Amino acid sequence: MSQAASVHAHPVRAFLPNWPLAIWMVVITLVLGLVGGLGAPDLVRAYNMGFGRALGEFALILLPSFALAAALSRSHASAPEGIATLAAPFAGAGMICPDTAYAALSPVAGRRGLDVAFGAYAGFKLLFPAGPLIVATALGVASDSLMAYGLALLIPVWAVGVFWGRLRSDVRSENAAARTSAPGGGVATIFAPFCLMALLLGIGWAVDFSGVALADFLTQPKGALLSAAVLALIQVPQGERRDCLDTAVRRTGSLLLILGAASAFGAVLMQVVPLEGFMTAQAGTAGIISGIGGLFLLTALFKLVQGSSMATFAAVTPVAAPLVAAMDLPAAAAVLAICAGSFVAILPNDSFYWLVRKDVLAANSEARSMTTLAVGASLQALTALVVILIAVALGIVT
């Protein structure tokens, strides 16, 4: 996105320093603590404890995920355009980035560019090892059913995105028809790591390996993800593997700084403002539904401000964690509510907007492009919320 476009999309930024997100998070956190009356030792202690929260677990998720993404982005797989649509959610999840997944699949998407875009976006939000695993790790909760819930929720959300994309795809970019001729390997290159990960997780679900450390690790989400990354790297020419790992280290390092700063902000915020009082536990299903709606709206607000989905996860989870505990919400429902809220909405402050806008929507007006992406993502968000609320009311998600 050009500097002019950025300022036009965010007029307030013209009057603010052009600082990276991590710097803003550090400064805001320190100012919040000082204004809130924390003494220097208490502020530093709260910041230190918050910053280190779960960073080790995030490293175990992000390093192999970004290595997997780098390896798959070098595959240049060629396949029928319908296969690209089917692969999009799994690529979005495995690459921990809808942008990278779309960039990898768009050369073979043909006329289905919007299908791929909304599919990659949904997969990143709802499938392991992306949205549900990232949010659950940040919240410090565990649910053995999250992977199954996310996959089930993906189906209607993905379908809504594809349906909306088909409605809005009457005007396409001039190069859409030419994108089916990209050279490269077969689609198995993309699917093989995800199939391995699903196989290992399925084995771990069915068999108790608690007495065998290696087997137990490899059949848990982080171990299965690491195995998938190794397989993806094996499929890359030997001379390119170091580049994939270097890319993974760079992306992980910068994101860990943002995650640490966001976690520290949440820790200091909890010291200064007792947010538990704003959302208290209520008895029964009605209380759970109210809490789910509150988490959805809180996350949607963060997404509208942050733009970036990953930055939204990083910023909202430290704030949401004490609220989830105070309201005594089911772990899986709370995680899925945050994932659903993060769908709202694909706007010009999101890099994914510009990637899709300049590719499949290049022949559209700015207003039509914004409507297509913002409304489509919001419809996906509302679909996810409705399905979650119905599942909670029926006792399916507990």
How many strand elements? 0
Shape: globular
Helix/strand class:
mainly alpha
- State the helix count: 18
What is the H-and-E element order? HHHHHHHHHHHHHHHHHH
Chain-averaged pLDDT:
80
Poorly predicted parts: 1-12, 171-184
Q: Tell me the major beta sheet.
A: none
**C-alpha Rg (nearest Å):** 21 Å
**C-alpha end-to-end distance:** 42 Å
Share of helix, binned: over 70%
% residues in beta strands: under 5%
Structure summarized in a few sentences:
The protein is mainly alpha-helical. Helices cover 71% and strands 0% of the residues.
Describe the structure in your own words.
This protein has helices at residues 3-9, 21-35, 40-51, 55-73, 81-94, 98-105, 113-126, 131-139, 146-167, 188-206, 213-218, 221-234, 238-272, 284-306, 309-327, 331-341, 351-357, 366-393. The protein is mainly α and 398 residues long. α4 (55-73) packs parallel to α12 and α14 runs parallel beside α16 (331-341). The longest helix has 35 residues, at 238-272. It is globular.
Question: How is the secondary structure organized here?
Answer:
Elements: H1 3-9, H2 21-35, H3 40-51, H4 55-73, H5 81-94, H6 98-105, H7 113-126, H8 131-139, H9 146-167, H10 188-206, H11 213-218, H12 221-234, H13 238-272, H14 284-306, H15 309-327, H16 331-341, H17 351-357, H18 366-393
